[in-house]
Amino acid sequence: MTEKFLLDTSYLIALEFKRDQAHQLAVRSWRELSRSRPSLVVTSHIFDEVVTFFNSRDRHGKAVEIGNRLLYDSTVEFVKVDRSLLDQIGRASCRERV
Q1: DSSP tally for the chain: helices H, then strands E
Q2: What is the pTM of this model?
Q3: Which of 6, 42, 73, 79 has its CA 20 to 30 A from that of 85?
């Protein structure tokens, strides 16, 4: 079974935003991660946050570039977060607390 890695907002921003304090660490991490060719996952919430981050800094072209990569790259699984998924997560987290 292929390992899955969730690409979270802070990681994606650090990877793409050269002025981010964690940029170099994210780039090194990405090089190492990409060698193992894991299955990558991004949620619609993370997508929205990353695109909004770049748009809010007048980096529309970068927002479009990253958005397109996340949506259309065959190595990235895009998971739409909807009410049903949130309900499942809520039920699972309640079971774990018991």
Answers
A1: 5, 3
A2: 0.83
A3: 73
